[in-house]
Amino acid sequence: MGLKKYFSKKANRNEFYTALICLFPSLVIGMTFVIIPIIMVVYLSFTKWDLISETKKFIGLANYIYLLKNPKFLKSVANTFYFAAVQIPLDLVFSLFFAFLLDKKIRGLRFFRAIYFAPVVTSMVAVSAIWLWFYDPQFGLFNYILKQIGLSPLKWLYDPHLAMLSIVIMSVWKGLGYNIVIFLAGLQNIPESYYEAADIDGANNWEKFKHITLPLLSPVTYFIILISVINSFKVFTQISVMTPRGGPLYSTGVIVFYIYQQAFEGYKIGRASAAAMILFLGVLAITFVQRRIGEKRVHYT
Amino acid sequence: MKENSSKFYIYIILIFFGVLMFFPFVWMFISSFKGISDIYTYPPRIFPKKWIFTNYKEVLNMIPFLRYYINSIFVATSSTFLQVLVSVLAAFAFSRLQFPGKNILFMMYLGTLIMPLQVTLIPKFLIVANLKWLDSYQGLIVPVLFNTFSIFFLRQFFSTIPKELEDAAKIDGCGHFTFLFKIVIPLSKPAIGTIALFSFLMEWRSYIWPLIIINKDEMRTLPIGLKYLISEGGGEYHLLMAAAVMTIAPVLIIFFLSEKQFIKGITLTGLKG
Asked: Which one, of A129, A124, A119, lies nearest residue B39 by Cα?
């Protein structure tokens, strides 16, 4: 139906105005705080600006070239990858393990699930305070435990080789419950009859896991990995609270932390925006790659 | 009996790790009653030598903790309420109304999902600064009211409301808004509740945005206030633990009370993917 004809009917006009009213708030806010900022960050990434000067200097790709050669930025990228590469597998393995156990028709399922999920709902900042103390090289609990079992104490957050791992461990503890809940739901969705049929065929536990559980769980696993990867690129809070300077030898400075420092501590708006654009493109690329791989490997019934 | 023995081992493992998982909270709580001598002591003590009850008061005196709390409550509640409102309206339009360009517009809304908010922090900051909304409640609340996920989730739910109800309402002379407020919303209470819960939690724990736009101490939200307490009062773990308890305890209590709703919501959002 042509637009003119459409608007000639009163009912249609009414519906249109209603829709307009309904969409108005989200449109305005979305334009102002999502669309326009996207355009702005692209533009700013081609400028040199210190937030205070009247003029922004257009410098083309200079920011990008600088970043791709800059050791600190490259370290931040490496740190982010390290975080993702350690945190995600640890999280996946443990959460699947616990979900698997919880799926075994045990009593007190709700209770256990709530306990494992509890860290997820708590404040990252508050939790960081506790773990900062655990990791304290002199008075922290962890070094005490190490000494008790005959190992030497570690410098944890002060050790360039350990700082990021310490953050990862805390992050895994904090986020585990979330994936446990999702895996558990996925496991509970697998019909009992499949396992019964396998039992009749004489399959052992490992075979059942490999040929029934894992394939039928693959959509859920795929979803979790996708979300986890994207989230790991956005990590910031615990870095900012536990290692406000980016850790020893900048070993915990992740990309978002780098962007934050450049923009709000260094006032290098152009450079920070370029870094943000690189982050965006990276997330986009990885998502794209993952979807490609995922489409092939995920088993849908 | 093999069944029983393997179940036994499962319980052992679950209990063991359950204790480990929850231990940091127990430590936090007990340590909030320690004095400074219990902190700087070796070997570390689990229980305080002498239970001190003044840490909480001391934290409240040192920093405007109560003010941070009120700020957080106000900001989180307002943004949740308003975000739900904005999302419900948009979801209603996309699911129950017909208008030209609907599909394209919806695609555009969905398109915003690819943009992580960490990427647009700088321009958002500039816009908020230009609006003179730095160090303000509006600066904290308004930018987060656009939540594509909430709109998408509610739209899915609204779509399941049978057309017959809508037709019946029309016959009775109900306009669109009456239909929305008198029928759609009451029927969607679980979905709206889930969205509200998640929004509230996200806003309550929002960190990088308040960090960027708030400078005045009295406008700080709880996470930010706590962060500065940690970075400036680093060594006083007993006080930090008291502050941590005040931050975490309400959330944990609410969680344990509404655990079913929570888990249901997570599974819904998780499995939809």
From this structure: A129
Neighboring chain A residues of B226 at a CB cutoff of 8 Å: 123, 125-126, 129
Q: For A222-251, what is each residue's pLDDT tens digit?
A: 889 988 999 999 999 999 999 999 999 999
Closest CA–CA distance from residue B160 to any residue of chain A (Å) = 19
Contact B123, A44 (CB under 8 A): yes
- Chain B residues within 8 A of A272 when measuring between CB atoms: 122
The runs of H, that is alpha helices, within A45-161 are 62-69, 71-102, 109-121, 124-134, 141-148
Q: What is the ipTM of this complex?
A: 0.88
Residue ranges in chain B modelled with pLDDT below 70: 1-3, 234, 269-273
Measured between CA atoms, how close is B66 to chain A, in angstroms?
16
Picking from A228, A266, A235, A272, the residue whose alpha carbon sits closest to that of residue A252 is A235
Q: Which residue, among B166, B202, B260, B207, has the nearest Cα to B80 in the 3D structure?
A: B202
Residue A264 CA, distance from chain mean position = 22
- Note whether A101 contacts B10, CB cutoff 8 Å: yes
Q: Which CATH number fits domain A70-297: 3.90.650.10, 1.10.287.1770, 1.10.3720.10, 3.40.190.10?
A: 1.10.3720.10
Name the minimum distance, in Å, from the CA of B273 to any CA of chain A.
6
